Each structure stands twice: as C-alpha cells, then as structure tokens.
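[Solved] Which block belongs to which protein?

Original post:
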Amino acid sequence: GSFFRLCERDVSSSLRLTRNTDLKRGNGLCTKPQESPKAPSDSYSHRVPLHKPTEWERKILVWSGRFKKEEEIPEAVSFEMLDTAKNKIRIKVSYLMIALTLAGCVVMIAEGKKAIKRQESLTSVNLEKKAHLREEAATKAKAE
C-alpha cells in the first residue's frame, strides 16, 4: 500500500512539472504543443539542382512534346522534367510495341488462312523437303 502512495506522489509531482513546461495532456499522453513553422531565412534559398541535357536528352524532350524545337530547350533543365520526358517516351514506345505485336498477329493469321486455302501445312512442307532430300541422296549415290 505504501508503495502505491509513493508512486502516486511521484506521478502527481511529475504532472505538476509538466504543466509548468507547457505540455498538453490528452488521452492520457503528454504531447508538446505545435510550434508555428518558421519563415525561411533570406540567407537560405531552396534551389532545384539542374542538369545540362545531352543531345540525346534534348531529342527526348522534343519527342515527348515538352518543347516544340530543340532551340527552345534551356541550357539547364531539372532532373524531374527530364525524368517526366523519359517516362512519356517509354510509354509511347510500349504502345508502339503493343501495336506492332497485334499487327504481326493479324498478318500471321492472314498468312495461315492463305496457306490453308493452298492446302499447305507444316507437315506437308516437311514431307516434301524430306522427299526432295531423299531424291538428291539417291542421285548422288547413283552418280558414284
């Protein structure tokens, strides 16, 4: 019993100390009051690092639609602008590859249908090649 009384005294004295240091108590927890954000000082200026684009990066900036001509591109651009342009180009290239794959599939389907109309199949083509090779082997054997 006396132990709990001592703990209560310590807790109550520590609460008095925290009240004096402007700590707010909410939901059983002590939290510091929110401080107002400090205004940026004049001596510190936040600058985005810039990058001088290469010729290839200049073409990417034009192809992505960021600039109309290479002459409009400034001497230095931000990395964020360059990354955005590269991502746009990646998306365009992936769409192009999807379109080419679909076009190739359509062409192969059309060629397959034409081959069926000619009564042509892989099996018949392979049998013809083997028969031709046998004939050549037989003529070489007779010639020797």
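(Second protein starts here: sequence line, then its structure tokens.)
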Amino acid sequence: MNIRFLETFLWVARLKSFSSAAEKLCTTQAAVSNRIATLERDLGVRLFERDLRSVSLTPQGERALAQAETIVRLAEELRHGIGDTHRLRGRLMIGTIDSIVYAWLPKFLEAVKTAYPDVDIDLTVDTSLNIARLLQEGQVDLGLIVGPLVAPDFRNIELCSYDCHWVASPSLGLHGRALALEEVVIHPLFAYSKGSQPHQNVLRLMETAGLDSSVARIFNSNSLATITRLVRDGMGVAVLPMAVIREMVDREELVVLEVDAALPPLHLHAIYREQPGSTLPSIISRMAADVASRETRATETRDTASRQLDGALRKI
C-alpha cells in the first residue's frame, strides 16, 4: 500500500475537497483522483461520497481514517528513527505557560537542540486559555499547557501533574498550624488568570465551603513572576504548584500552609493538531513528555528523601 496515497486520502478527508488537497500537495486534481481511486481499489471499499458541491467520507472511509492516520504517522517516525536524526529540520511554534517555564522548559529546549539542531523554536508564553486559542487558529503548532483540549483533529499527550498548594510569606504568620479556609480567604488571594483552572478550583472550594466568593479579594495575573513577588512581599496568599516554587520554599521565602481545603492537581498536556505529513509536533511533543516525566520522578525522589530526613530529625 502506497503511503503517499494514504497521505492524499487524509488531506482530502481533512479539506473535504479534491482540488484543495491537490493544491496542498502541489499536484493536480487528476493525480489526487487517481490516487484515491487506486486506494479504493486496493481496499475494496468506497472511501468518499462525491457530488458537485462537496466530498464526504463514507462509513467505510470513516473507519479507515484513524488507521490511515496511524500508519502515516508511524511511517514518518520510522523514517526519522532509523535515519540521521539531525536531518529533521523546520520551524516549530510552541506555546507554553509560566508554570512550565519555571520548572523544566530549559531542559526540554536543551534536549530538542541537542537531538535536532536544525529545528528552530519560536516560543510564546501565555495562559493555557490563550495558547489553546492560538492552537485552534493555527498560530501555534504545539501547546504545552494545562489541558486537555477537546476539539476535532487535536491530539493530547499527558506530560505530568502538578500538585498545588496554598502558600504565603512567613511574615504573615499563617504557617505551622492547621487553617480553615475561612481564615485564608480573609487575606488577598493571588491566582492565575480569571477562567483558568487554578482560579476556578479556588472558586469551587469556596462554594463547597459555603463561602461567598464575591467577598474574597481575588487578584488575577497571567505572570507567575508578578504573583510570587507580591506574595513573597507579604501581600497575600497564593495557590501555586510546588514544582515552580520549590526553590522559594527551600529559601524560606514562601511557606506551605496547612489548609483544610485540598486543591486538585493541574494536569499538563502536550497538544497539537494532527496533520498528514507533519510529524515535527508529534516527535517534539514526545520529547516534552519524556523530559517532564524524568523531571517529575527526580522531584518526587528529592521530596521523599527530604520528608524522610525531616522525620528523622524530629525523632532526635
């Protein structure tokens, strides 16, 4: 079976047009028609319904679509996997969030540059909501964000999960004792952008506790640097992932509070639109997953060792 014919099938299915697929593939409409006719003959089924205005998949075409996407992707990965990896080249537009920038993004970019020196990266840092919008508009090829993104043609790959904690400056005197949520929300709360998952999680906790969220003073920002600076200066309390504030906690610039309202973790995903013949986002997203997984395991190992040491010191 000809892989190029499968790629043609995917483009016709995606664009719903033989002429548009021909333009995309830099060939003629007749060539596209011939490829599809040959593929239908090889498979023994009709893949498309055609009329004067549109092209649509038949039920057999719908069933073939996912398998064809897998075959094309695996063929591309095989070509890159057995050849010189340095031959992979191109420009990849990546959108990500502060929480990844402060954690493992530098190691990820270093890994990409080492493995694929001819791949250029354009980086955009924004909120997960904005990066998701840029993905759908085609302005970003790969998103590393809090996900998933549920939309047609998009692939979500799990990266890691971030545990979130209530944190504050030691100067507020809130640490070292159990706190009710009511004691926390009397202070200004610094959260991620309005509409983000961390922001929504705080509102849901307050609703569950029967607290009026309109009374709380919630300050939103899409800048992690801004949030941490204000909280370190004793301006209020924040909800932040431990992965991005660990050094500040180790330096005792921030302390973790013991609040009776547990926060759900943030699930990070690599997200890209699956397109025939475009394997760069797929390959790089898996590198991101490897780096994120490795860094998460290393962090968990350090945390376990730290807790064991603290426990041993308390017994002395």
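Accepted answer:
You had them paired correctly. Confirming on the second one: DSSP finds twelve helices and 14 strands in the chain.
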